[in-house]
Write a structure and sequence with these properties.
Blueprint: H1 55-63, H2 65-76, H3 83-97, H4 101-115, H5 121-130, H6 132-145, H7 154-161
Helix pairs in contact: 1-2, 1-6, 2-3, 2-4, 2-6, 4-5, 4-6, 5-6
Length: about 180
């Protein structure tokens, strides 16, 4: 009859036996990029209701949110779209549907992803629906705290950050595609 073995007991008969190492991962042509551990998500640099610290920007965001939104969107898009174009689109959506917050909400998501800011889509959507001017003012202040002056636009900010040295245009990021066809 076979003796039952206690799972908590250690087998002292074979102390030199080690578990085999797992096989190495398969070799692919797709590069693996690990994010450095220092790139954790961070909170917003200012609170939502700090909009009264800059009363001028708060008033502009309340009475003419298309201006603040256009300035934010140009920086978030890194110059790919203009302040004027996005401001006009915002104004048209507000005029036709009365719900421009749906458009500005997507830029808040994009900004949070770009700068690794804490939050989620549901919070962002509710925030833009309930207090659009506070949300826009917070985004504007966030860009200022990151060294941008949204009222100058992307290209002027890039020139100032590079001390007048001309920059080559940034190519769009293309997705990584494996070689060959697959069915």
């Amino acid at each position: 009859m076979e003796k039952m073995r206690d799972p908590d007991s250690t087998d002292k008969a074979a102390p030199s036996m080690k578990e085999p190492l797992p096989p190495p991962p398969p070799v692919t042509r797709v590069p693996v990029v690990a994010l450095p551990p220092s790139l954790d998500y961070v909170p917003w640099s200012t609170d939502l209701c700090d909009c009264f610290s800059d009363l001028k920007r708060c008033c502009i965001s309340f009475w003419c949110p298309c201006v603040t939104f256009g300035q934010i969107s140009e920086i978030v898009d890194r110059g790919a779209s203009s302040c004027g174009l996005n401001g006009v689109i915002y104004l048209l959506i507000a005029w036709v549907t009365g719900c421009a917050c749906c458009y500005s909400f997507f830029y808040r998501l994009k900004m949070r992803k770009q700068y690794r800011i804490d939050g989620n889509a549901a919070e962002d959507f509710i925030l833009h629906c309930l207090c659009e001017s506070c949300a826009l003012t917070q985004e504007y202040r966030e860009l200022q705290n990151r060294g941008f002056n949204p009222s100058l636009g992307w290209f002027e900010n890039a020139k100032r950050q590079n001390h007048g040295v001309a920059m080559a245009p940034m190519p769009p990021v293309a997705p990584i595609v494996e070689d060959g066809m697959k069915r």
